[in-house]
Every structure is written in structure tokens, then in C-alpha cells.
Amino acid sequence: MKKTIIRSTFYLVILSVIAKALSFIVRILLARKLSGDAMNYYSLASSTMVFMITLAQMGIPNALSKVIAQSHNPHKPLKAAIFLSVCSNVIIIMLFLFAIPFMAHVILKQDVILPVLYAILPLIPIVTISGILKGYLFGIQRHMSATACQLFEEGSRIIFLLIIFDRYPLLDAVSMARLAMISISVGEVFSSIYMLLSLLIKKRTPLHVPALFHDLQRKNFDEVLHVSIPMTGSRLIGSLTYFLEPIVMVYGLSALQSQAMINAYGSVNGYILPIITMPSFLTITLSNFLLPSFTYHYTRHHEAQANKLFTTILGCCFLVGMGCSVICYFYNEELLQLFYHTNKGALLLKQMAWPFALYALQPPLSSMLHALSLSKKTVSDTLAGSLIRIGCVAFLSSQIGPAALSIGITAGMLVTTLMHAFRLFFAFRKAYS
User: Where are the bilayer-spanning segments (predicted)?
Assistant: First the structure.
């Protein structure tokens, strides 16, 4: 069992490293090709994109992986997930379509960002399809296929961006930001095509579309919703925080102060956070592997295998997080120069390095809480961290300026991670007492 876990973890790590390398090439490409204004527009629209996608997905992809892992008939949860996703996507897209002008003019106070926001519309159903396919693959223990799809996603994005920026080198800032947003849709399309072909080749999915929903029962929907709703709550709070942050940070500030905060926001989200959260590519992949695998063994009373799986993955995540923090602390200027050809934000990267070593533990801790049916606890933990983050930005922006962003982000992350750890500690203590 130990050799199997280590071998599976090793293969997932290799695929994740390659996928992250491609993902970072995308970020480097955007950082070097987008102008400062284009990066600001793209960062502002990205917060809205994350919020809309969270609403549309309803936490179904991750819930699907758990429900399928503990089910003897994986097709029924899949059908229920498809039906729920179609309904939520139609509602969210219609509401978002009418809300876009209001969001650009009133909420974000950037009328020029309209084309970038409209580019999010096709992304919503595409990401939902990709998420369902990935959740299904994880649920039936096809972890390699679910992880390998990231290679096609990032690779296709790189090719698309290279072709576009080569053909149209003199685009304005808004058009560049819009194409950067469209590139996400391109990547998700190729990722979905790969996963669908992988499933069809193995003949593991139903092909008779007219008969897709005829055998569904209410309990099939309840199984998915019982897990997805708490997951949605947790993710919705996080994405809502990300959505509200740029709004709160400029509230009550002068035009000059607002522009300084927007520039800092683009720098933090466009340059610093991608580097300091680099371990997330691995920790999220391992967490996606942990949730269905732990559930599979735990529901079949294989406690020893389940606990071994958890400790192995948590240890790997901790080592990766510490390694990244060490590199960011001692080589902050070199990293920024290497990836972005600038030293801007080097001191901030150094200051945030050590606290963010714990960020690598957040995904596996969250997955364990979901696996132990403690999903509702993750909602309150995420809410506490988000309130701390928004509170710091809201009350400190006028006093210390852009530094409020780093303080809020760090404090919110630490609160959520530590609360997850304490809840899991007491849950294990209660289970084995």
C-alpha cells in the first residue's frame, strides 16, 4: 500500500510540475506582453470571473469526485451533476449578461473594462464542463488523466497567446486584456476534449444522450447537493472576497490614491502572488487525489490506508511549501527579474514568504474536512479568514496605502489555514478516543 501511494504521488507530482511550468510560462508571457494598464484590467476582471464561475459550478466538480468514489454506480451522480450544472449555468449567464454594464460603471468604476467582462460569458459553461469531467475522472480513480488534462490546457493557451500577440502586436490595453481572458476559454476547451476522448476510449461514460436523465431519482441529486452546497459556500466566500477586494480598497479614496491602489493590486495579483503561491499547483493536485481516495478507503473501513494516505500527502505539501518559502525569501529579486524582468515588489515578496509556507497546507486540510463530512466547518473557517482580509483592506488602505493588501491577504490566509488544522485535529481526536 505504501509503495502504491508513493508511486501514485510521484507520478502526480511529475505531471503537476510540468503543468505548473507551462502555467508559469503563460503568466510570464502575459506579464511581458501586456502593458501595465492591460494587466490592471485583466486583474480586475479576473476577480469577477472567479466569482461567476464559483456561482455557476456550485461546488459540483469536487462534490462529484467524493460521491462517485463512495458510490457503486458512478453514472447516476454524473447525470445529476450534469442536470444541476445546466440549470445553474443558464441562470448565472443570464443574470451576468444583464449585470455587466452595471458592474463596469458602478462597481468597478471602469467603463473601458466592458469587453473584458463580456469575454467571461463563454468561459462559464466551458469551465463547468471541464470541472465535471475532471471530477468524474477523480471519482473513478483515473487521477493521471484528470491531472494530465492540465498539460493540454496550458499548452493550448501558450500557443494561442503566441499566435495572437505575434499577429497583432500593436493592440490597445483593453483588447490585450480581453484576449488574455479568451485564452482561458481556449485552454479549457482543449482540456475538456482530452478528458472526453480519454473517457470515450475507455468506454466509461454513457453515450445515449436521449436516455440520460430517465432513471434519476431525488436521492441522486441529494447526494451531490449534500456535498456541493457546503463546498459552494466556502468557495463562494473566497471568490466573493476576491471580487469585493478591489471595490473596498478604493472606497473613500481620492483619485490619486485610488490609482495607486489599483496599480498595487495589479502588481500583487499579477506578479507576487503567482510566485508565492507556486506550491498550490502541487497541493491542489494532491488534494484532488486525496479527497476521493481517502473517501474510498474510509467508507470501506480501511482506516490504516486512509490515514497513511493523508499523512503522506500532508507531509509532501509541507515540504513543498517550506521549499518555496526559502527560495522566495533568499532569492526574491532574482525570481522577479527572471520571470518578469523587474525587481518591483521584491521586499513584499520577502516579507510574505514565511507566512505563506502554511498556505501549502490549506488544500489538503480542506479536502480532509470534506472527506470527513465536515464541509460546513470549512465555510465558517473561510468566512473568518475572508472577513479578516476584507477588514484589513477596508480599514488600513486609507492609512498605510498598498501595504494593506499584503497584510489583509496574509492575515486572512493564516486564519483560515489554522482553523482548518484545529478542526481536523479535534475531529481525529474524537474519532480515535
Answer: 9-29, 41-60, 81-104, 116-139, 176-197, 236-256, 268-291, 312-332, 352-372, 403-426
**Residue 279 to residue 353: CA distance in whole angstroms:** 12
- The enclosing H or E element of 55 equals helix 36-57
Q: What is the pLDDT of residues 348-393, one digit of tens each?
A: 888 888 988 888 888 888 888 877 777 778 878 888 988 898 888 8
Per DSSP, the three-state class of 302 is coil
Cell matching residue 128: 463547468
CA separation for the pair 304, 318 (Å, rounded): 21
* Predicted confidence (pLDDT) per residue in 103-138, tens digit: 887 777 777 888 888 999 999 999 888 888 888 887
Phi, then psi, of 205 in degrees rounded to 5: -120, 150
Residue 202 has pLDDT above 50, yes or no: yes
Say which DSSP state 210 is in.
G
**CA 14, 19, 20, 22: dihedral to nearest 10 degrees?**
130
Query: How far apart, in Å, are the Cα atoms of 383 and each of 143, 260, 298, 413, 420?
Result: 30, 28, 28, 11, 12
Q: Which residue has the higher pLDDT, 106 or 291?
A: 106
- Residue at 269: amino acid letter: N
DSSP assignment string, 100-126: HHHIIIIIS--GGGHHHHHTTTTHHHH
**What is the rounded distance in angstroms from the CA atom of residue 381 to the CA atom of residue 431?**
21
pTM of the model: 0.65
CB contact at 8 A, 12 and 289 = yes
Question: All 3 cell numbers of residue 162?
Answer: 503566441
**Contact (CB, 8 A) for 397 and 339:** no
* pLDDT at position 126: 92
Please give the angle made by the CA atoms of 218, 379 and 416, to the nearest 5 degrees: 150
- Provide the b/e sequence for 199-230 (b: ≥16 CB within 10 Å): beeeeeeeeeeeeeeeeeeeebbebbbebbbb
Rounded to 10 degrees, what is the CA torsion of 298, 300, 304, 307?
Answer: -10
Distance between CA 412 and CA 409 in Å, rounded?
Answer: 5
Residues 132 and 119: their CA atoms lie apart, in Å, by 22
Read off the pLDDT band of 232 (50, 70, 90): low
Single out the residue of 104, 132, 102, 130 nearest to residue 116, CA to CA. Answer: 104
Confidence of residue 66 (pLDDT cuts 50, 70, 90): confident
Which of 415, 341, 339 is CA-nearest to residue 21? 339
C-alpha cell, 66:
467524493
